[in-house]
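ugh ok fine here u go
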Amino acid sequence: MKKVLMSMRVTEASNYNEKRNSIAFDYIEYFEKLGYLVQLIPNNSKNINNYFDKEVKVVVLTGGNNVNPKLYKSEDKLTDVYIQRDITEKKLLKKAIKKDISVLGICRGFHFINIYYSGKITHNIKNHVNKNHKLISKKELLNSKKTNSFHNQGVSSDDLAKDLQVLAKSEDGFIEAFRYKKNKVLALQWHPERQNKKYDKKLIKRFLKGRI
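structure:
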């Protein structure tokens, strides 16, 4: 069965004074419906390469947590930052690219991919938390579609890494989707797993078939 490797967020169980790997149920359900067996990747694993067997068809970098600002030379201080996750997702992304495996970034994954390719992030943007946006895109599949929004960090045109291609923006000009032509990489600022829209599924299926 085709497999998806999926990153997880770091949460802290205050009652036990310990860090935990966690993920929302929505991700599992969404990708199982797309026909994938989900393999979760813990942030404290020392054996990332061993997860890449011949059944792996896609790597998903999920949402949650902030990317460490030091990775894009920002002096701003952000909370909810865990270096273990940054290290793990960098390994996943690098290995997937090397093996020519598709990579899908969602929300934080969208940010991380942009940073991996030497982009930046704008902090504390307005009207993007618990809001719905209309997408502006040259692609008919995405243009004028409504999408969710759960982030207060964003990627502007000036922030975007030069090798990445914009697929959609919000009405206020922030980038909502991009791809990298040279490799099989797609990143979405919104959460497709939370809204169950037809255009999301079509977009992801087309991407995984190399048709974007």
